[in-house]
């Protein structure tokens, strides 16, 4: 059976979790493949809101097994807290989550360094991270100075490894960041506590996933963040430190590309981003505040107000290309009901010349070219059939589909599971 992939086409917060939740009912295994507790995936079920950071949001279906893939950076404190919160809401979590033995463990000092770096950066260098230590843990992974979940299964080896790692790390903490050194014994106890609680769940998920796929199980790969935040294909350096895009889904799960079937790209009917970095379609000033308020655009992990802008065709085409998206989901279209006219960025101009693609450099200097669409000015929240949408809303959706040259398979008109239009 195939693996399908849900990937963000913008700068994260596109509404991926609602789509994952929707698809989870026909899925056996859901895999988070990158990122960590920087993600904030919101699902609304029966009017109740749940926010997921590390645990795949598909956990709320009883039939699913959830996997934290090798590409994730796992923060034990956040993870255990999230499991406990979900269990108090009556969800089975610990007996349904598997953790890759190759995923890296995010340690408290990663968060401290992230905070120190952001605090010490000049305004031009500040990334506006979530301060969850994500980049620092991935840096240690690349420097080959990280702790992996599998290391927790062998106490002697863990002790030895930790001593080596902290020898290097403590020099960095003290000399470079003016922070307290880490006590190896305390860190060892901290990790052993996590191993006691979750050790049974740590397995070789690469073997597990591919053999389950071979047996016919249905797998959903759950992306966090989005294409615009991808370390390679996003607006570097204003990006996260992983690959949320399709290549990252395979590298971060070990699922063979042969199993990959649909790549479903999620985009809002407008655009948002949190943190610093270029944003050609951004709406500044009070007009931006209006859209923020209408869309409730505040970060679910940090509570920060999101920057708001219009739908950007060039960006979505970039996401379609990089990810091989064969179907798009358009979310939060109900938020646009307020507008008389709806601008859309249909192209860019750079140094007086039209640019046919989303550039890797100099995005801050492009001039967005707008087209305007007539708004429908009718409340469409909760509508679940395309035929029931006002004609102007139907033609807005069709126009976006033509502009990005990709099928829009699902349209979301509200936060709840039922507020969904299936286009096919
Ligand atoms: P980091 O991932 O915490 O290192 O932050 C790097 C950039 O990615 C910052 O601009 C964050 O605001 C952004 N970011 C990280 N995670 C998310 C997310 O889940 N949604 C939206 N933006 C995110």
UniProtKB/TrEMBL annotation:
Active-site residues annotated for this sequence: 13, 41
Pathway membership, UniProt: Purine metabolism; AMP biosynthesis via de novo pathway; AMP from IMP: step 1/2
InterPro entries named among the record's database cross-references: Adenylosuccin_syn_GTP-bd, Adenylosuccinate_synth_dom1, Adenylosuccinate_synth_dom2, Adenylosuccinate_synth_dom3, Adenylosuccinate_synthetase, P-loop_NTPase
Cross-referenced SMART domains: Adenylsucc_synt (SM00788)
Keywords assigned by UniProt, alphabetized: Cytoplasm, GTP-binding, Ligase, Magnesium, Metal-binding, Nucleotide-binding, Purine biosynthesis
Top-level enzyme category: ligase
Enzyme nomenclature, EC number: 6.3.4.4
Organism domain of life: Bacteria
Residues binding Mg(2+): 13, 40
Cofactor entry: Mg(2+)
GO MF, one annotated term: magnesium ion binding
A biological process term (GO) from this entry: IMP metabolic process
Transmembrane intervals: none
Assembly and oligomerization: Homodimer.
Family of the protein in this entry: Belongs to the adenylosuccinate synthetase family.
Classification via HAMAP family: Adenylosucc_synth (MF_00011)
Protein name as it appears in the record: Adenylosuccinate synthetase
Lineage: Bacteria, Pseudomonadati, Spirochaetota, Spirochaetia, Leptospirales
Designated gene of the protein: purA
């Amino acid at each position: 059976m195939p693996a399908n992939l849900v990937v963000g086409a913008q700068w994260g917060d596109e509404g991926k979790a609602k789509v994952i939740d929707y698809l989870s009912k026909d899925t056996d295994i859901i895999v988070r493949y990158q990122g960590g507790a920087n993600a904030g995936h919101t699902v609304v079920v029966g009017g109740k809101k749940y926010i997921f950071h590390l645990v795949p949001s598909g956990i709320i279906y009883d039939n699913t097994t959830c996997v934290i893939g090798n590409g994730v950076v796992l923060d034990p404190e956040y993870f255990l807290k999230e499991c406990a919160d979900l269990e108090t809401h009556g969800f089975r979590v610990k007996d349904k989550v598997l953790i890759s033995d190759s995923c890296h463990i995010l340690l408290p000092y990663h968060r401290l360094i992230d905070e120190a770096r952001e605090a010490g950066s000049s305004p031009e260098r500040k990334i506006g991270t979530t301060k969850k230590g994500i980049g620092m843990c991935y840096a240690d992974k690349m420097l080959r100075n990280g702790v992996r979940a599998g290391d927790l299964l062998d106490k002697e080896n863990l002790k030895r490894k930790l001593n080596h790692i902290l020898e290097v790390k403590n020099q960095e903490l003290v000399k470079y960041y003016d922070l307290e050194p880490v006590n190896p014994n305390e860190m060892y106890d901290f990790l052993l506590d996590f191993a006691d609680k979750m050790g049974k769940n740590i397995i070789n998920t690469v073997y597990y996933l591919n053999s389950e796929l071979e047996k016919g199980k249905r797998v959903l790969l759950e992306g966090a963040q989005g294409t615009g935040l991808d370390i390679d294909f996003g607006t570097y350096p204003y990006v996260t430190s992983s690959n949320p895009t399709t290549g990252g889904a395979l590298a971060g799960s070990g699922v063979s590309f042969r199993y990959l079937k649909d790549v479903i790209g999620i985009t809002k009917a407008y655009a948002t981003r949190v943190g610093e970095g270029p944003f050609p379609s951004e709406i500044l000033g009070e007009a931006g505040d209006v859209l923020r308020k209408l869309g409730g655009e505040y970060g679910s992990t940090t509570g920060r107000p999101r920057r708001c802008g219009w739908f950007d065709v060039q960006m979505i085409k970039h996401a379609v290309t990089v990810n091989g998206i064969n179907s798009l989901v358009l979310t939060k279209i109900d938020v646009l009901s307020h507008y008389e006219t709806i601008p859309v960025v249909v192209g860019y101009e750079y140094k007086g010349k039209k640019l046919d693609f989303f550039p890797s450099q100099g995005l801050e200097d492009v001039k967005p070219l707008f087209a305007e669409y007539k708004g429908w000015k009718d409340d469409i929240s909760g509508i679940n059939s395309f035929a029931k949408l006002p004609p102007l809303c139907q033609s807005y959706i069709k126009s976006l589909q033509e502009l990005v040259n990709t099928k829009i398979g699902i349209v979301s008109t509200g936060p709840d599971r039922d507020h969904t239009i299936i286009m096919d």
